[in-house]
Design the sequence.
């Protein structure tokens, strides 16, 4: 009888231990689930901040492309060697090649992104008004410019709201911008230019533009300086145009001031069925004008007259050339939008 009572007591003790163990396990599991739920609520709390930062980075990269290209791939624009005023940076200066290396341009692109991102992100005051406490660390971008513009931006953020806290460190953006194509064209042009560094390689540029589907213009701000403008229309999303500028300084004699020049041509508009008329003007003696286009004929003295048809609707980039009696030439790009 005593043995039976002893056996029952042992089973009771074991049962109590099992119940205690199960209770402890259930409590631990419940605590873990509650902790996981709290973590999930933190992730939801910071998602508006991350979304806003992502949008700022997208905006920064998108807006950096045209201004980066306009300034010859440089952020810190050097002063003119002969004066204090900054201008379009030189790719060539009195025989020296100054076109930046691609790796250096990537660093300069990062500076544009950093500057634009900081301007967009501000102090995140709109989120502070919503109860967030946010501290922002140093901003640093790392860019790779290939078939696309790929940017990884470091911007450490410590975010608190109530008892919840979290951190964000890196943001990424890939933008459609085929800089690999742009730089390849520029590098080939620079190689050709340096074969005869005191001449403008118009023939090479014309053939390159035809083969690579871009246009170019030359402008002469003074007697010994040329600004090269490359217009690319198929290197970013929606074929938005990108203009890449660089300047060159030459050992040209003073009499070069008499060389043929085309005066700046404004962007023009024409309408289907409406007669269009425009005269291209230039500087020089006995100038003879010509244009490479199937839209119209240009007279020797620069007069353009035609009536657009429906098949002409669109935006046209037209090379216009002026040649003087000495054989000096200048080319310009006419932009004509037909609606």
Sequence:
């Amino acid at each position: 009888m005593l043995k039976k009572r002893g056996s029952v007591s042992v089973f009771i003790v074991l049962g109590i231990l099992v119940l205690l163990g199960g209770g402890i396990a259930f409590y631990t599991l419940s605590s873990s689930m509650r902790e996981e739920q709290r973590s999930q609520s933190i992730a939801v709390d910071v998602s508006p901040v991350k979304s806003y930062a992502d949008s700022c980075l997208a905006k920064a990269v998108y807006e950096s492309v045209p201004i980066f290209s306009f300034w010859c791939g440089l952020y810190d624009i050097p002063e003119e060697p002969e004066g204090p005023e900054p201008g379009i940076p030189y790719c060539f200066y009195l025989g020296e090649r100054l076109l930046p290396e691609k790796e250096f341009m990537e660093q300069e692109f990062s500076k544009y992104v950093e500057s634009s991102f900081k301007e967009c992100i501000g102090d995140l005051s709109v989120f502070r008004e919503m109860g967030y406490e946010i501290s922002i660390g140093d901003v640093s971008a790392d860019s790779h410019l290939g078939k696309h513009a790929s940017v990884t931006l470091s911007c450490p953020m410590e975010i608190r709201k109530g008892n919840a806290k979290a951190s964000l460190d890196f943001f990424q953006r890939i933008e459609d911008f085929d800089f690999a194509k742009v730089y390849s064209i520029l590098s080939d042009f620079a190689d050709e230019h340096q074969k005869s560094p005191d001449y403008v390689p118009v023939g090479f540029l014309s053939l390159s533009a035809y083969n690579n589907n871009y246009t170019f213009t030359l402008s002469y701000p003074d007697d010994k300086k040329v600004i090269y403008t490359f217009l690319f229309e198929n290197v970013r999303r929606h074929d938005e145009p990108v203009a890449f500028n660089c300047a060159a300084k030459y050992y040209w004699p003073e009499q070069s001031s008499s060389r043929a020049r085309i005066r700046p041509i404004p962007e023009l508009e024409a309408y289907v069925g409406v007669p269009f008329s425009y005269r291209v003007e230039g500087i020089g003696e006995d100038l003879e004008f010509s244009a490479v286009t199937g839209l119209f004929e240009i007279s020797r003295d620069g007069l353009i007259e035609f009536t657009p048809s429906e098949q002409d609707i669109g935006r046209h980039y037209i090379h216009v050339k002026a040649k003087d009696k000495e054989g000096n030439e200048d080319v310009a790009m006419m932009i004509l939008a037909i609606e």
